[in-house]
Amino acid sequence: MNEIDMNKVDMTAENAWEGRYQNGTTSWDRNGVNPLFHDWVVATLASDAKILIPGCGHGHEVIELSRLGFNVTGIDIAPTPVAQMQHELETEGLQASIIQVDMFTYVAKQPFDAIYEQTSLCAIQPEQRLAYEQKLYSWLKPGGSLYALFMQTDAEGGPPFHCDVSDMKALFPTSRWDWEKARPLQSPHPSGRFELGYRLIKC
Ligand SMILES: C[S@@+](CC[C@H](N)C(=O)[O-])C[C@H]1O[C@@H](n2cnc3c(N)ncnc32)[C@H](O)[C@@H]1O
């Protein structure tokens, strides 16, 4: 189902992101699923897991999870990728919950088992990060997994904004999140940069 709640859309952010989609200036888009997605995320999900993908854009991972039979929700502020994703789902006869909404106002009807965060945190203004961490925390069940890809640019400004690991450790404190001990995955990004993949468990 494609829901639109116009009271819950920040028009400035919507216009900025919508403009990029309409102009085709979407250098972040892989035109497919992240190559790490199956081994890193899908392989660890229970078959009845409910998964949220915030800032999902064209939603390649949303569509793939739906193909695999998972209960998946994708949210994004921009109408164009939401409509394209909906069209693709309908064409393939797939089910997913697709919502055009500002994620800062999105309230989950029920908490999720897992969240896949790919290139959304680095897309928002750094002063919005704390509010985003609070939303991520609120959307997950206790014990739920946040698969987070932290963008590495080592540059000033953005988007994408650099997600320094020490800043991420402060943003996702161990009082609220268990950081998996494994070394982070390195995910090459289509823009030529790379992301570091960490699995965090909500305490
Ligand atoms: C860099 S793109 C990444 C898209 C997708 N995750 C991917 O990897 O292809 C950032 C996405 O976040 C969305 N976005 C930005 N601010 C948002 C907000 N406040 N609420 C919901 N989506 C937002 C944009 O529309 C855009 O699709």
Descriptive keywords:
alpha/beta; Rossmann fold; 9 strands; binds S-adenosylmethionine
**What's the total number of strands?**
9
Low-confidence stretches: none
Q: What is the CATH-assigned architecture of the domain at 36-72 and 109-202?
A: 3-Layer(aba) Sandwich
Q: What is the overall silhouette?
A: globular
CATH class of the domain at 36-72 and 109-202: Alpha Beta
Q: What helical percentage do the residues reach?
A: 25-40%
Ligand list? S-adenosylmethionine
CATH H-level superfamily title of the domain at 36-72 and 109-202? Vaccinia Virus protein VP39
User: What is the count of helical runs?
Assistant: 6
Strand content: 25-35%
Could you report the average pLDDT, rounded to the nearest whole number? 94
Structural class: alpha/beta
Radius of gyration: 16 Å
